Amino acid sequence: MKTIIEPFKIKTVEPINFTTREQREVLLKQAGYNPFSLTSESVIIDLMTDSGTSAMSAAQWGGIMQGDESYAGASSFTRFEKVIKEITGMKHIIPTHQGRAAERILFGITGGAGKVIPNNTHFDTTRANVEVSGAKALDLPCPEGGDPALIADFKGNMDIKALEAFLEKEDKANIPLGMMTVTNNSGGGQPVSMENIRQASELFHKFGIPFFIDACRFAENAYFIKKREPGYESKTIKEIAQEMFSYADGCTMSAKKDALVNMGGFLAINDDALAQEARNILVVTEGFPTYGGLAGRDLEAIAIGLEEVLEEAYLKYRIRSMEYVGEKLTAMGIPLVLPTGGHAVFIDAKAFAPHIPPHQFPGWSLSCEMYLEGGIRSCEIGSVMFGRTNKETGEFEPSRMELVRMAVPRRVYTQSHMDYVVECLEEVWRNKEKLRGMKLVYEAPVLRHFTARLDYV
Ligand code: F0G
User: Any transmembrane segments, and where (predicted)?
Assistant: First the structure.
């Protein structure tokens, strides 16, 4: 059979609230032209994020009832720890309430003024946690990653030559750890090859620097390795994931992605002393080491989700969902980051609306129009998120790319929902010349996209 179907049946459903364009015009204006400020009832298809939006399985809901809510030494923690140790091979598993809490603890210990953290591309919360500690977040993406239209297998890779040049010139004492984000979310959800993970690991280790993985979408990355990297076609997803983690000394994880749950995360570390320090902070800010900000039932659901996410039928359907939308949009001529990534379809807004300069936020404008047209909520990953005004020169420094991300929640939408999204974009594309530039009316000092208010110029 050619048709790849959703590998599940639907047992529980949630109604969608429909709105008209006129209603959406009022709602978006009230929201300060910021999709983050819309209520979910005003949204028809929510592609703002794949984070915490997964549909849980019957097995996970069953596990919720089995959750052991003991303060210390809960059996749910033992199960959680066992599954994560099995996949990552790491020695210390520290639960946190979500990914950024793991980052906060890690960089709270290792960061600080004068330090630099290299990564293929930091996600915004990772960058913020590095910067809040006083350290510098350095992105070293491979050159292919910066060309949206270029078709290549592993556009999420780190630029190994640039990393080597950096490590040779920088004082090692200033580099507490190196990181690799899989898949590379801000770079278009593009995968990182096993070879690249291995090379980065070898380089960091050559200079005596620990190597961490930001593992949010590790299973999607492993699936791409299986499909695209020679030598991995007959390995299981679990074996590939195990090899990925074998090169690392630790990882941060947002369970809200590839653990198929609505909340949770963890920090995994091999080094005993670092793990001890992390647990000391954990007790103060998250909770006791065997629950760390989560309920026993959450730990149970994560353990089950981490097993389900490794199933190949699930990953095949998952990755195909993105390809499907990507193929239809490409056929219409809509510029995308190609090939489509693991968790999202990214539209190249710079090419979609070349008449809007980066300082007038073409991605933000496109994302507003998608909402107005079809009630679709997406997320700008461009100059509102990453652009800066240089404090010394007063000049605007744009983001490397102006993208709109349509992140697809896991196991939530069907093919006809995706067809609706495609139809909506067809209409926006037809009227692309009418897209207007935007300006910021309010911005917070960090992570401004979450609370910014904008208007049309
Ligand atoms: N790292 C990456 C690569 C992420 O994509 C995210 C979250 C985090 C870390 C932080 O995890 O949300 O559990 O604190 N990304 C979400 C997104 C928010 O929409 O891409 P968290």
Answer: none
